[in-house]
Design goal:
Layout lengths: L12 E5 L32 H13 L4 E5 L9 H9 L6 E6 L4 H11 L3 E5 L5 H8 L5 H14 L5 E6 L8 H8 L5 E6 L17 H11 L2 E4 L9 E5 L5 E5 L12 E4 L4 E3 L8 E2 H6 L4 H13 L5 H4 L12 H4 L2
Parallel strand pairs: 1-2, 1-10, 2-3, 3-4, 4-5, 5-6, 6-9
Antiparallel strand pairs: 7-8, 8-9, 10-11, 11-12
This protein binds S-adenosylmethionine and iron/sulfur cluster (2 copies).
């Protein structure tokens, strides 16, 4: 079955945040001043259990979801995440199961993730320079630890690996070329992400956004690029390949070239609230239904109603919104 929203966008992918906790404090996502020692993270009992996530995921797949991405917070901090992966793999009709991680625990876990049935991973890495990287993750995690994770994922066959680099002007934009050089020819796909105004805590300013078009120009001047067709309608990254055959890169231009009209993603927070947009101001409480003993039919009908009513297009309208909308934080909703 296909379920379309109020703007005729089908429900195609689901991102599941499995924890709101993280062992990094990236300044653009969970700045230390806000996510300090006393921050009230969700207690364990409030998180959806693996059974609850799987039950919901099945209802999403019945309505057209083909791709599930596990995220967070840092998903590899969730204990026994492999068990969830194995449970999700058992869902008929799910074509693509992947996970986004900061890579710090990947060297240890890659093999088990693969064995459980994970198909691919996306690893975030913002610079190859330790001084810049540690300043961005704010937890003194060295670059090598993430590179070891990427290598382990490659060995385990979690391919193709995507590498996410959030580009912030004046912070790491001078490393765009280094990153491109390092990952060219590796078989991994480097994706440059425009710094976004998610949540309220990251001090976002438009002049810190490096437009994707500038990144393309910078890289093309060194190694000429040509555009590649999207894999499917609604793919978030604009794809380019090196003309010399050394692989491809992606650009996620959510600020300068919004793609709301093709946005087919739903996000489930760690406590079971469904957000129909990364910038949504409130979520729909699926945990309440699950824990009240509702039937699959009842929960499915709720999902149908929520998705049919969806009309979000924050990025398209960004400039006309007031800056003080009560948006949720990305670490909670899942990136
Ligand atoms: N902890 C995992 C990680 O970092 O890969 C998964 C969760 S993280 C919220 C998912 C993705 O969102 C990461 O690639 C991260 O770099 C990106 N992200 C976080 N805050 C962002 C922001 N303000 N602008 C753009 N991307 C952001
Ligand atoms: Fe953690 Fe990922 Fe956010 Fe960085 S981007 S603080 S690694 S959740
Ligand atoms: Fe989708 Fe909302 Fe992002 Fe637009 S702003 S692309 S609707 S998540």
């Amino acid at each position: 079955m296909t379920l379309n929203d109020a703007r005729n966008r089908p429900l195609h992918d689901l991102r599941v945040s499995v924890t709101d906790r993280c062992n990094f404090r990236c300044t653009y996502c969970m700045p230390k001043e806000v996510f300090g020692r006393d921050f009230p993270f969700l207690p364990r009992a409030e998180l959806l259990t693996f059974e609850e996530i799987t039950r919901l995921a099945r209802l999403f797949v019945e309505r057209g979801v083909e791709k599930i991405r596990l995220t967070g917070g840092e998903p590899l901090l969730r204990r026994n995440i492999e068990e969830l992966i194995a449970m999700l793999r058992g869902i008929d009709g799910l074509r693509d199961l992947t996970l986004t991680t900061n890579g710090s625990l990947l060297a240890r876990k890659a093999e088990a993730l693969r064995e459980a049935g994970l198909q691919r991973v996306t690893v975030s890495l913002d610079s190859l320079d330790d001084a810049v990287f540690t300043a961005m993750n704010d937890m003194d995690v060295p670059v090598q630890r993430v590179l070891d994770g990427i290598e382990a994922a490659d060995r385990a066959g979690l391919r193709p690996i995507k590498i996410n680099m959030v580009v912030k002007r004046g912070t790491n934009d001078q490393h765009v070329i280094d990153m491109a050089r390092y990952f060219r020819g590796s078989g991994h796909i480097l994706r440059f992400i425009e710094f976004m105004d998610v949540g309220h805590t990251n001090g976002w300013k438009m002049d810190e956004v490096v437009p994707a078009a500038d990144i393309i120009r910078t890289i093309s001047a060194e190694w000429p690029l040509e555009p590649v067709d999207p894999n499917y309608v609604g793919e978030v990254a604009n794809r380019y390949r090196y003309i010399d055959g050394q692989g491809e890169i992606g650009l996620i231009a959510s600020v300068t070239q919004s793609f709301c009209s093709a946005c087919t993603r739903a996000r489930l927070s760690a406590e079971g609230k469904l957000y129909t947009c990364l910038f949504a101001t409130h979520g729909h409480d699926f945990r309440a239904l699950l824990r009240a003993g509702d039937t699959d039919e009842g929960i499915g009908q709720f999902l149908d109603r929520v998705w049919r009513a969806r009309s979000d297009r924050y990025s398209d309208l960004r400039s006309s919104y007031a800056a003080d909308l009560p948006k949720v934080e990305m670490s909670y909703i899942g990136g």
